[in-house]
Amino acid sequence: MPVMESRAVQVRCDKNRDRDIVLNLIPGHFATSHSHVNYYIDMTGIKHQQKIAKQAAEFMAERYVNSVSVDTIICMDGCEIIGAFLAEELSKSGVSSLNEGTDISIITPEYPNGQLLFRDNVQDRIWNKNILLLVASATTGKTINRSLECIRYYGGKIVGTSAIFSAIGETGGIEVNSIFTSDNLPNYFTCSVLDCPYCQKGQKIDAIVNSYGYSKI
């Protein structure tokens, strides 16, 4: 096993122990597009394995099922499988839900030239619709803010934001509901390059990371 992966530890969701929702954490020195962090948070299982993705969606749905009407779920960071299960959970028959029987849309934007874009054929699923934004992780809030700005540009009404992991509780006046927070990660920190204690010590970066994975340096 490579040295970096040998440091991995598992953290289980402590908010609902009836579900087997687990993050794999690798401590080290990592660079994101906005900051430096001391953990690589591996969400591969939660995003791509059917059983754990369904459990994550069930957990997320609890926040909205009785209080929020959702027309469209916009998925970022490869969260489409969770998004589909979340739509199924919110629209399930036989539960006290504002979305019971609703056919919720699942949409992912494109990123040409780094800009978020929704093609003409899906814009009617956003315009004047109640939008739930689903992201994998939020460390500084910049990605969420950019997504919210794009959704509003296309006329969507933001009714909620959910994440697998978030180091922030809200951004842009919108609450970020997450399964895991920085409280679940021992001594977790995120900081700018200039303030990074590892950089100040001359410690090299282990990998460049984002919500899709990592690339070692």
Automatic annotation (TrEMBL):
Q: Which organism is it from?
A: Caproicibacter fermentans
How is this protein named in the record? Answer: Orotate phosphoribosyltransferase
InterPro entries (UniProt xref): PRTase-like (IPR029057), PRTase_dom (IPR000836)
Q: Give the CDD domains listed for this entry.
A: PRTases_typeI
* SUPFAM superfamilies, sorted: PRTase-like
Taxonomic superkingdom: Bacteria
